[in-house]
Amino acid sequence: MKRDIPRRRDLTLDEFCAGVRACDIKVLPRALTLIESNNPAHQRQAEALLTRLLPHTGQAIRVGITGAPGAGKSTFIEAVGLHLVRQGRRVAVLAVDPSSGISGGSILGDKTRMTKLSAEPNAFIRPSPSAGTLGGVARKTRESMLICEAAGYDVVLVETVGVGQSETMVADMTDCFLALMLPGAGDDLQGIKRGLLELVDVIAVNKADGNTLFAAQVAARQYESALQSLLGRHERLPTVLTCSALHKEHVDAVWQAVEERYANSKANGELAERHRQQGVRWLWAIIEDRLRQAVRQHPKVRSMRETLEKDVLTGMLPPEVAARRILDAFGLSDHDAPES
Hints:
Elements: H1 13-21, H2 28-36, H3 40-53, E1 61-67, H4 73-85, E2 91-97, H5 110-113, H6 115-118, E3 123-129, H7 141-150, E4 155-159, H8 168-171, E5 176-181, H9 194-199, E6 202-205, H10 213-231, E7 239-242, H11 251-267, H12 270-297, H13 299-313, H14 319-330
Parallel strand pairs: 1-4, 1-5, 2-3, 2-4, 5-6, 6-7
Helix pairs in contact: 1-3, 2-3, 2-7, 13-14
């Protein structure tokens, strides 16, 4: 006989607020799930929750961490997190796993990769799928950061997918941007994007141990030279260091460089201005996201979407034409666009 699984009681706005502020580990994940929901009713409750919690945010150091697959991001984050909790800090990790472009599924295995950190009472790890979002971050990462800050976490680490998509999105939601690199830079230096170098605050060449120690040191010097030639000696250059996350060597020095960048930007007013600009860009990101949802959920669009996608796949219809038909069905025609 099939047993009915009892449905959890929905929490009120007051209960969500009280639970988050108390860092109730049973309420905090539910608040983040509420934030991530596409349900219109949930979105309205999430907006009310964020409005109530906003005065309790803004005191944490937000650090974005990027790097190519295999650079050791999870190992590095666990090493940094353990270093911080032993100093009495409270650390939240928002770890973004890549979603499948076919099924939309995600492994969400960061908790299993950070077993020691996840066991710490002053650490919280939240894996989220990127769900096709560009920039290697989840769609609601900004909102999730605010929830964690309101819960009292004073360090928020955002681990990106690290696929090289629009690093600007990561920088637009953090106070410091750290790029984890591999030893043996060599020809890889040719692949460094100027855009990334202009955004990054700290470069850490990981796996500086054993047989790769010398290669890591050489790579660090090459990165420093590349930075000076690409950005110029008078521009704000990223700090370049080496470390071994696996052996927990010099990880503290990397974090010290992050804190120094944070302190300097806070002292000279750059951080406050950065937060203001991030707020405006966040506004338009939300608008674009909601418009995308509205287009996909529109009845006329839903009725024709599968046919149009099939025609584009088979080459029977140019994407530009298909896009115009979708926008026409949504009600956004050429004659609605403003004149240039």
